[in-house]
Amino acid sequence: MVGTHVDITEYMILEERLRASEAKFRSFIQQAAEGIMLTDEQGIIIEFNPAAERIAGLPCAEAIGQPAWSLMERLAV
Amino acid sequence: MGILPQALQQSAEERVRKALASGQTDFLNRRFEATMPAEGPFPVRYLEHYIFPIRTDQGFRLGSITHDVTEQRRAQEELHASEERLVQAQKMEAVGRLGGGIAHDFNNLLTVIRGYSEMVREALPDSSPLRADVEEISRAAQRAAALTAQLLAFGRRQILRPRRHVGGRADHAGHLQPRGRAAVPPTAPGGEARTVRAPGGERYRLRHGAAPAGAGQGRAGVRGSRPRSAETHLTPPASMAAMQRLHRSQSDSRTSLPRRFAVLTAAPPHGNNAPGGAPMEFAELIRQRYSVRAYKGNPVPEPILNRVLEAGRLAPTAANRQAFRLFVIRTEGRKAELGRLYGRGWFVEAPLVLGVCSLPAEAWVRRDGKSYADVDAAIVMDHLILAAAAEGLGTCWVGAFDPAAARELLALPAGVEPIAFTPLGYPADKPSEKKRKPLEELLRRERWS
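^ inputs. structure came back:
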């Protein structure tokens, strides 16, 4: 029986750190009073915080995945 | 959506793609202001956007931070609106003051018209055809007075600076007295006294106030008062009753009180003006001023001090040379030192000491060599002390100071003569009777003897 053992301790630590960092910034974005929106390189909305939902009157689930301009065209005054 | 600015709406996709492709986001990377419909109390919300590029391995992402500034905007708008209301209120106040002031002077003129027409009517025989004409004048003046009363009522709400009514002293109420004389002069030139008969039979002496020189037409008025001893019992003649009614309607309007009528109003308690109070009638001020020899330590407000000094500045000097200088000396922390000027304790009790120095070299000199430097300085000091009294301040001008100490303390150069000093502060004593020689002793008419 042949087995390999890979020490994933470092990986786990990194993953844990990443998760902590992610949680830190997510809570920051979630709780910000300012509406925060982020698009990817194609202009697709990938981040839309609760303040942005409130200001735009649009749920996060509907906003994410849409191109920024379609949101703009649909909702802009 | 509203998160991106209105300017981008027409070509939203194009602009966003351009920003994503180029990373050139100058046209996005700034603050915007936009409106969008919203539910709740504010149908329009004001948003500020800050849009910026984020460089990644694959190109650029766009980040947007949106700030809802609706509340701040509303607060600003409300502040602006309330500022405008304030300005408007201030304008209305100014109009009220102006209107009230004009109405007052106008009312004075109307009182003259009414008083005179009343007297003309009384002087005319019942059969005179002119009677109806005169009555028409009187009625018109009465209607006009009713109009000014409206203006006064409006102005009354605007006036912020109450003025003190002066009068009611026994010797003040001397212009109108019951007289034994039965005759009613049919005519009387302006400025002279005459007698009118009351319905009850009492006769009142009326003086038609010739306006003081320079006072202008607006100040002309009828002067009158009831004898103090009979204040509540006598029925004044019709014209007087009319004047009293008129005056009652004016008496609390607190613009420029026609002081000739002041004696008709209830007498206020006698005493000095409160600090910052209204100016006294001049004759009353002359009577009430006394040399104050005990002072309170409370400070003299700067605007009041300035008014006193201004009175000194405006004093008449020989040939208008103005060869004097005023001194304001604060006593705080210098009481011992200033005590060398004049040894009485009260001299440094007040917060201030005023001084007048003369500049003999600049003063006018009479042809026989008499210098008027000291006279000028004395007149300046008199202006100062009267202005101070009008402000409710006490003074006691002192000539018996130590001139050497004055020169040293004030660092006077040669050619500057200290003439008189006075404390300036709020009185802590009460006036005693003025001891003055009777006028007959002081006055010579035409020649010495």
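Strands of chain B lie at 31-37, 44-56, 59-68, 193-197, 203-209, 221-223, 324-330, 352-358, 417-424. Chain B touches chain A through 34 residues (CB under 8 Å).
thumbs up if we can close this ticket
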